[in-house]
Write a structure and sequence with these properties.
single chain, alpha+beta, six-stranded antiparallel beta sheet, 6 strands, 59% helix, globular
């Protein structure tokens, strides 16, 4: 591309703020830039119920259970601060502006958002450990470390002929971005931070030796998330783990606990936004595919489920599993993609991935859909070995469909924790994730609060996707 075209591409990304933001969010950013007082800003935000709710959610994110719920918008604004509000408005704008037509694009944005929330949680936790401060600056800065990648993937540039030619030739999206505008994702983030007047902490975090403790915490959090997605046996992950021990006073055991806690918290945080993405990715349609008689149950009551299956999206996810296997990615990375794909592409309303611990306990590690926190707590329980539904799946290594209406006697024998979560229809589907002939996790799927039956097509599609993950981690995963 010529220098003029590269300049135009960069300009399209840097000037996308007004196109990404809704009118109210744009007015908030303008008011902040003009130095308006908090009451004025509060009045503007209150015009948009969705934006109001999202700001309060971010203000309440990752707080301790003992903390008082901050339902007041004014309190949320005070807690987050002006820079935080500006960042939230822009980030929400990007999230809500994601195109629907490109499956590869959607799954890349899902991945990027997961990493963004993990970085935000890690940054906040590291800053709190070092400064004993509850400031949201580190969280907001961590959330926006990937803003360059998000803005690029959400822009119309990804649909350019030149971009498709580059990726079809084997270049990664980041390499294609570099070719198109001479900036990689990190450099693009720095450009956007300056253009959109975001937190200076991000620029501090991107230099070799950050000037502040918070800047260093954000930098390490960003490196930790990136390294984790490279695989827990990667050199990058080992190096950043050493940094946690050396610079933050963790033991190796504490390092593992810190990472797992951060990932679990970020999964809950992501679900607050993920539902927006998934609803936009699969708009509700009337009718749908009806379940036919087959190996999973008898004829349904004739009602269709709310969303159609997305075959192209399923195929994209399966291809992604193959790529992750080749990279020897962590199983948690597979779970992250799988849980969103089962919800978004096979149209289940709620999905849980729960790991088998100590051969007698399940622990939720990823959830998608409504009621994330309830699903996390409800799907972390001990089960009776040899005398429970979970134990049966572990022994047989086969998926299981259960309906209170179709199989009332079998339903009565189901683990109480599962029955409490089985939705309004008392119907759910369980599928084992198998690594080297051992069940390491179980995927739980249901239709949640919707008066809609699970279709045979849904269950078959889910079985194929879960089987693809099992095959990938068994053949290629070395950890």
């Amino acid at each position: 591309m010529t220098e003029d075209k590269k300049s135009n591409v960069l300009s399209m990304i840097l000037n996308s703020e007004l196109r990404s933001l809704g009118a109210v969010a744009t007015n908030v950013v303008s008011a902040l830039n003009e130095g308006s007082d908090l009451k004025t800003i509060e009045t503007i935000i209150l015009k948009d119920a969705s934006l109001t709710a999202q700001i309060i959610k971010v203000a309440n994110s990752s707080k301790s259970e003992a903390d008082i719920q901050r339902n007041s918008l004014y309190d949320a604004i005070v807690r987050i601060g002006h820079d935080g509000l500006r960042s939230i408005c822009i980030t929400i704008g990007i999230i809500e502006h994601i195109p629907l037509r490109n499956h590869d694009q959607r799954i890349m944005i899902f991945e990027c958002l997961h990493r963004s929330f993990e970085t935000a949680i890690h940054a906040e936790n590291l800053t709190k450990k070092m400064t004993n401060s509850d400031s949201k600056d580190a969280y907001i800065a961590g959330l926006l470390c990937n803003v360059g990648e998000l803005a690029f993937l959400s822009s119309s540039i990804i649909n350019l002929k030149e971009y498709n030619e580059l990726t079809e030739s084997g270049l990664t999206p980041e390499m294609a971005c570099l070719s198109l505008c001479d900036f990689d994702f990190d450099e693009l983030s720095e450009q956007i931070v300056e253009k959109w007047e975001l937190s200076i902490l991000i620029n501090d975090a991107f230099i070799n030796n950050p000037a502040t403790v918070t800047g260093n915490a954000i930098k390490v959090a960003f490196e930790l998330t990136r390294a984790y997605y490279s695989g827990q046996n990667s050199k990058a992950f080992i190096e950043v783990s050493r940094s946690l021990v050396r610079d933050f006073g963790f033991s190796l055991k504490e390092t593992i606990h810190f990472i797992e806690k951060g990932i679990e918290s970020s999964q809950i945080e992501f679900n607050r936004y993920g539902s927006i993405l998934q609803e936009k990715a699969n708009p509700f349609q009337e009718g749908g595919i009806k379940r036919h008689s087959g190996e999973y149950g008898d004829e349904s009551n004739g009602k269709g489920f709310a969303r159609p299956l997305d075959i192209a999206g399923q195929n994209t996810a399966i291809k992604k599993f193959v790529v992750l296997a080749q990279k020897k990615a962590s199983t948690r990375v597979f779970y992250s993609i799988l849980v969103d794909s089962l919800h978004g592409y096979t149209s289940f309303d709620r999905v849980v991935i729960a790991e088998v611990k100590n051969k007698s306990e399940l622990k939720a590690v990823n959830v998608s859909g409504a009621g994330a926190q309830k699903l996390f707590s409800g799907f972390s329980f001990k089960f009776e070995v040899g005398g429970s539904t979970v134990s049966e799946i572990i022994d047989t290594k086969k998926p299981l469909y259960i309906s209170q209406k179709i199989n009332p006697e079998i339903y009565e024998c189901v683990d109480e924790n599962i029955k409490r979560l089985s939705g309004v229809n008392g119907e759910f589907f369980l599928s084992p994730i198998v690594k080297n002939d051992t069940v390491i996790s179980i995927a739980y799927m249901d239709m949640g609060g919707k008066d809609a039956t699970i279709s045979e097509e849904q269950m078959k599609a889910a079985t194929i996707m879960v089987g693809s993950v099992s095959k990938a981690i068994s053949k290629n995963y070395m950890g």
